């Protein structure tokens, strides 16, 4: 009897030591903004965990036959930071529960699935988020080549742990891809070099080069610069330059009437105030607000705000639908 129990224990320990892992890139929609949703489908025999990180997922089999993906579809990648996150089980005969919230787990969501019956079964769940910021992990699990990438923790305003240079490079890469496609209509963006700017007075900038092509045009080389807020873990301004240093202009700039401009200003300023209030700042004063001449559909400006005895200056930008006045995204970066 004791020998049988030992053998059973040994078999379980061996099966747990040989954890099967399967990485999959998400099928992404064209939705941009601060909120999003992923629908995840897997085929599980006994126990498995699903990890979602940026634009990829990692399926780990903890017991039973190797689990497999059926689908991983997201409106947009899971961001590094978010203010709200929800999980909902949709289909499955066993149990599925959120065991790690990305807001407190290095931007990685983990769902554990336990199937108690004989044989495998399909499971489907959804995750949703809002208030996303800070970019996302491009090819997260695919790039890391490991079960868990090196931790990437949201920065804390108190200065306890500013983001690393490597994290800043990742954020800048993600914004170059996102803004290049969305604001400038660039296709097939391939970043060929990226690094921290070592020029005097440019310690908060990341710089690099990439190739891309505009619609109905051959491939060309460009440069980019990202203004980083290392304390907040955010990207501010992103500059796109030609090899000669001249700025690349976004196509199709839209003329805005004075009345519509005032409405857009109010919407953007209200969003900026709400964002700095979330950081514990009050007494907001705007220094400037204007339509960004370099990026189509964007407004930019600066403001000062006070927290306890400290007054800080922030740069902010709002992605707007100028036709409807709808706010798409707001970014706030402390100087």
Would you mind describing this structure in some detail?
This protein has three domains: 17-144, no CATH class; 165-241, Nuclear Transport Factor 2, Chain: A; 258-334, Roll (Nuclear Transport Factor 2, Chain: A). The model is unreliable at 1-18 and 144-161 (pLDDT under 50). The strands form five sheets. Strands 1-5-4-10-9 form a five-stranded antiparallel sheet. Strands 2-6-3-11-8 form a five-stranded mixed sheet, with no helix packed on it. 34% of the residues are buried. It is an alpha+beta fold and 335 residues long. It has helices at residues 2-17, 140-144, 165-184, 258-278, and strands spanning 20-25, 27-28, 36-44, 47-53, 56-63, 68-74, 79-81, 84-91, 95-100, 109-114, 121-130, 133-136, 187-196, 205-213, 219-229, 234-241, 282-291, 298-307, 310-321, 326-334.
Summarize the structure.
By secondary structure, this protein is an alpha+beta fold. It has helices spanning 2-17, 140-144, 165-184, 258-278, and strands at residues 20-25, 27-28, 36-44, 47-53, 56-63, 68-74, 79-81, 84-91, 95-100, 109-114, 121-130, 133-136, 187-196, 205-213, 219-229, 234-241, 282-291, 298-307, 310-321, 326-334. Strand 18 and strand 19 (310-321) form a beta hairpin.
Query: Per the principal axes of the C-alpha atoms, what is the gross shape?
Result: globular
Radius of gyration: 23 Å
Secondary structural class = alpha+beta
The termini sit apart by 70 Å
Largest sheet: 5 strands, antiparallel
DSSP E strands, number: 20
Q: Which range does the strand content fall in?
A: over 45%
